[in-house]
Amino acid sequence: MNRGALMVVVGVLAGLLAMTAWRHLHEGTGGASIAGANAVTNATPLRAADQEPQAPPAGRQGNRAKGAMSAPTVPPTKLVVAFRMDPSITRGLYLGDRWVSPPNFAFSQEGKRYVVRARAQLVDGSTGSRVDLDSAEWSTDDPKLVGITRGDNGEIEIAVDRPGTAQLRVKAGGAEKIVQVASKQFPDAMDVSFRQ
User: Fold this and answer.
1) Mean residue pLDDT across the chain
2) Backbone dihedral angles phi then psi of residue 59, each to the nearest 5 degrees
3) Fewest CB atoms within 10 A around its CB: which of 18, 81, 115, 122?
4) How far is the C-alpha of 138 from the C-alpha of 120, rounded, in Å?
């Protein structure tokens, strides 16, 4: 990886860390919270029934006082795939291991093989809290492109060995997530993008 690309990666990491620090500083203090603003994605498409409010059943409309407010809808729990950021970068900044679940996760690695660790998480839509899922089922539609090796505590290792596109499927907690994988091979590096 050339020096310019490394500087871009370090700049992106610094921005992510600043945003994370700001979020932790302002949560619970009445300030704006961005928890879940970008990290939570839809596990499944919304059905029409979920998008439109339904009228109360006939005969029950009179039980409700005029002008009474209904309870706010609570965002549902979502299944996301969290990726471990490159430890050589985060540990060098004394951050330890960092896991992220953006809608698009893309990085380049030197060599002819791209390797990243991932795990399934359930994200509570109302609080943004996360639960790691140790018993998630992982599969791919192209095992020659995307290799999956199970590890400890529900973690998996994803290895991408050639350029192309594939789907990564995760089932856990009664939900299913499909992650689109796209890879490009360069003379000295592999560039891989995961879109969930």
Assistant:
1) 76
2) 90, -15
3) 18
4) 9
